[in-house]
Amino acid sequence: MIRDATIADLPAIIEIYNTSIPGRMATADLEPVTVDSRLEWFTAHTPDRRPLWVFEADDKIKGWFSFRSFYGRDAYRHTAEVSVYVSPDYQHQKLGGTLLTQAIASTPKLDLKTLVAFIFSHNQPSLNLFKKHDFQQWGYLPQIAELNGIDRDLVILGRQVATSSLQG
To answer: Which residue, 19, 61, 64, 144, shows the most beta carbons closer than 10 Å to its own?
Structure first.
């Protein structure tokens, strides 16, 4: 079941996020984050504009998805950066695809027409997931991050989404 995250979910969200750090594939954070350090990030999400969802099954949070305002300027109000994280125990079960499908379907009610994602070029599973959902490469930033002494490239993916609620 996909639902809006509550503050009680934040420790599980952080746990899932922190499991991605050592692999150096999904985040540029190099050290684990804390619940306290992510409170402002959590409260910036609102169910009606920039939701933070969790995928819960068997009373366990197995993954999460977030929409984040892009670039903080009003002209970008119909654009959101999206992120998806799945617990290592539940990867390869199509949870990321389920979350991404719902995100795309929710864009009209969120007043969005553009979704963007920033993915390391060596993170082939995530690139494949987003491309499967019709995201296209819109940009490429070579050697922008250093992970374990290796310069890594960042791919910018984007997708225009159909929306009926926007006005010119």
So the answer is: 64
Distance of CA 3 to the CA centre of its chain: 15
pLDDT in tens, 1-40: 999 999 999 999 999 999 999 999 999 999 999 999 999 9
Are 141 and 153 in contact by the 8 Å Cβ rule? The answer is yes
What's the longest Cα–Cα distance across the chain?
47
Backbone Cα Rg of the chain: 16
List domains and CATH numbers for the chain.
2-160 (3.40.630.30)
Burial 13-35 (b: 16+ CB within 10 A, else e): bbebbbbbbeebbbbeeeeeeee
From CA 109, how far away is CA 112, in angstroms rounded? 8
Q: Are 35 and 14 in contact (CB under 8 A)?
A: yes
Count CB-CB contacts under 10 A for residue 134: 11
> pLDDT by residue (tens digit) across 91-116?
999 999 999 999 999 999 999 999 99
Amino acid, res. 46: T
